[in-house]
Write a structure and sequence with these properties.
With 72 residues, this protein is an all-alpha fold. It has three helices and no strands. It has helices spanning 4-21, 23-28, 48-71.
């Protein structure tokens, strides 16, 4: 499994790419990057799995957006 630091770096990189290249998708994100610093209910920290899940979601959203733009 990837380290927490590596996952966080990937999240930042993908979020920046979305923000710069696909601003319409960035506006639609329900989870803004700032919320990653807020732990889930009754938890002290986010887990590696939770961050990995979020990273995978961002990757899927970005891939769908890229495919959509390629069709245009």
């Amino acid at each position: 499994m990837k380290s927490l630091q590596k996952i966080t770096e990937e999240i930042s990189k993908i979020t920046l790419e979305i923000e710069e290249k696909y601003p319409e998708l960035y506006r639609d994100l329900t989870e803004m990057p700032i919320t990653l610093s807020i732990p889930p209910k009754n938890e002290d920290t986010l887990t590696t799995k939770e961050l990995s899940d979020y990273l995978n979601t961002l990757k899927k959203l970005l891939q769908k957006e890229i495919e959509l733009h390629l069709k245009k």
